[in-house]
Amino acid sequence: DREALAALLKPLVWWAWHALRYEVGDWAHEALAVQPEPAYARAVANHLFTHGGRPEDAIRLVEELGGEVDAGDPDAECLWAWAHFNARILTADPGLMSWMHRWVEAAQRTGSVAHAAAVRSIEVVFRVRLGEMDEARRVGVEAWQEARSTGNQIAMCWAAFMKGRAFSDSDPRLALEHFDQAAEIAQRVGLPLNGGFAATEAAVVIARLAEPGEARERLAPALRSFIDSGDRQQLWTSAHHFAYYLTRVGRSEDARCIWRELGGRQGWAARHHRDELAELLGDPGDGSLSDDQLVESIRGVLDTLDLESPHSADRRTARGEST
Predict the structure, then answer these.
(1) pLDDT digits (tens, 9 = 90+) for 140-166
(2) What angle do CA 298, 301, 304 make, to 5 degrees?
C-alpha cells in the first residue's frame, strides 16, 4: 500500500538515524518497487545509505530523483532537499551550503519549530568544517535558543551539541558543558547517534584537561558503536579525536598510523582539529588502507588499549568476548 508505506517511512528516518539502525535504508529501498513510488521512500533510503556506509547507492538514488517535488507537501519537500544535500556532501559539491539553506527553509515550512531548530543547528557542522567559527557560533547560539524554547528533547540534544562544537575552539569549558548536556539527553531519551558524537567531542576537551582516563572511557564505546553500525562518516570524524587522544597518552605512532589515513576522510571534523593534528603529526597524506582495513586498524588499537586497562576483563565480558 503506497500511502501506508509513505506514512511508515517518514517518521522512521529520524528514528533509524538516531538509533544507528541503518538497515531501515534497505526497507525504504525495497519500497521503491511499489508503483507509483511511495512518497519519502527514495529520500529515506538516500539518507540512511549516506550514513550507513553506502555512498555510491546514496548518490545514485539522488541522481534518479528527478526535478522539483510538489511544494504543496512540505514534508516531501524537506526530505527532497535533505537528499540533495546528502549527495552534495558525498561529492564535495561547492554548492553544498545552498542546499543546506534549502533544507532549513523546507524544515521551517513543515510548521514544526523543533524540527526546524534541529535542522538549522546542523549547519554548524559545515561551518566548523570550513573553519567559519564566527558564523558557526551565531548559528549555534540562535538554534540553541530556538530549540530550548520548544522544550523538545531531540531538538535540544542536537542544538546543545552543535553549540558546543561552535565554541570548541574558543571556550572549551563551555563546549564541554554543552556536550555533556547533549550526552545526558541522549542517554535519557535513547539517542545513541547523538550520545556517541557528544562523547567523542567531549573526550577531546577532557584530554586537553589532562584527564586521559575519562577521555578513553568516553571515546571507546562511541567508536565501537560507529564501527558496529557502519556509520563511516561518524567514525572518520571520531577517529580524528582518537588520534589526538593517542598523542596525549604517548602513543604517537598509533596516532600517526590513523591520521595518515584521514587525508581524504575528513568526515565532519572541524578545521581547527585537523590543523592541530597536522601540527602534532604532520600532513595526513592520501593513506594506503581501504575503508574496511582502516576500520580494523582502529578496532585493533581499541582492543590493545582495552587489554592494557585495569578494567580489561570487565569490558570484554560486557562485549560478550572471552577473557
Answers:
(1) 999 999 999 999 999 999 999 999 999
(2) 150
